[in-house]
């Protein structure tokens, strides 16, 4: 049975299933195994320029975070928390990178409003989400609930589809190996930056 949770969207209480996979995906396992090579994929910066993930990995240890979009209060809270840890991540010799399927204009708005010191890339066709086994489609029931509260993923997402990545965080070593991960279908549960920092310190 799908669990239900409440989240605050502006002044309204939005009650939606915390587990967002549709019924035919209930048994699916998301993410990829620790010890596997970090997948290659191409994302885009806010200017629409292609960026290869492998090129990011080559710059050194990477904390790669997938989030749903700036319309999601839990994502906004997560980004704000990560902003407090940007310096710690850099002190650990790593870089913090975010990925979302949202359109560049929404990414720019999120970055400006939060005054974030990390880079957010657009995953227009879910290439990165697919590579990390995170993409899923929302059921008609959940689509209707989102629309009732003014959330239109068809407008927010570049590909115009009612799809999302499962929120996930991966720690990738300098040689491109996944050494730590947090993947949870319950979008209210996100990785603790302190656990991520502990994983980064173990790379030394």
How would you characterize the overall build of this protein?
With 204 residues, the protein is of the alpha+beta class. It has one domain (4-201): Glutaredoxin (3-Layer(aba) Sandwich). It has helices at 53-57, 73-83, 86-91, 104-114, 127-131, 140-148, 153-156, 193-201, and strands at residues 4-9, 12-17, 42-44, 50-52, 62-66, 95-100, 119-122, 135-137, 163-165, 168-172, 178-183. The protein has a five-stranded mixed β-sheet. It has a two-stranded antiparallel ribbon with strand order 1-2.
Relevant terms:
two-stranded antiparallel sheet; 204 residues; globular; disordered N terminus; Glutaredoxin; alpha+beta
**Cα-based radius of gyration, to the nearest Å:** 16 Å
CATH structural architecture: 3-Layer(aba) Sandwich
Report how far the terminal alpha carbons are from each other.
43 Å
User: Class, according to the CATH hierarchy?
Assistant: Alpha Beta
Helix content: 25-40%
Quick take:
With 204 residues, this protein is α+β, with helices and mostly antiparallel strands. The chain has 8 helices and 11 strands. A hairpin with a 2-residue loop joins strand 1 and strand 2 (12-17).
Which helices and strands occur, and which strands form pairs?
Blueprint: E1 4-9, E2 12-17, E3 42-44, E4 50-52, H1 53-57, E5 62-66, H2 73-83, H3 86-91, E6 95-100, H4 104-114, E7 119-122, H5 127-131, E8 135-137, H6 140-148, H7 153-156, E9 163-165, E10 168-172, E11 178-183, H8 193-201
Parallel strand pairs: 5-6, 6-7
Antiparallel strand pairs: 1-2, 3-4, 5-10, 8-9, 10-11
């Amino acid at each position: 049975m799908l669990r239900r949770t409440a989240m605050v969207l502006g002044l309204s209480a939005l009650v939606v299933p915390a587990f967002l996979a549709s019924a035919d995906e209930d048994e699916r396992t998301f993410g990829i195994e620790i010890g596997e090579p970090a997948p290659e994929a191409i994302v885009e910066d806010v200017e629409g320029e292609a960026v290869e993930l492998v090129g990011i990995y080559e710059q050194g240890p990477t904390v790669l975070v997938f989030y749903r979009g700036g319309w999601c209060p839990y994502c906004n809270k997560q980004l704000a928390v990560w902003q407090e840890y940007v310096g710690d991540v850099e002190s650990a010799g790593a870089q913090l990178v975010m990925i979302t399927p949202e359109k560049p204009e929404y990414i720019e708005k999120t970055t400006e409003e939060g005054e974030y010191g990390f880079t957010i890339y657009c995953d227009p066709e879910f290439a990165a989400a697919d590579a990390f086994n995170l993409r899923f489609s929302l059921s008609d029931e959940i689509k209707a609930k989102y629309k009732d509260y003014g959330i239109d993923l068809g407008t927010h997402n570049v590909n115009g589809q009612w799809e999302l990545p499962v929120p996930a965080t991966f720690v990738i070593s300098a040689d491109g190996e996944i050494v730590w991960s947090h993947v949870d279908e319950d979008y209210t549960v996100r990785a603790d930056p302190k656990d991520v920092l502990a994983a980064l310190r173990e790379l030394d």
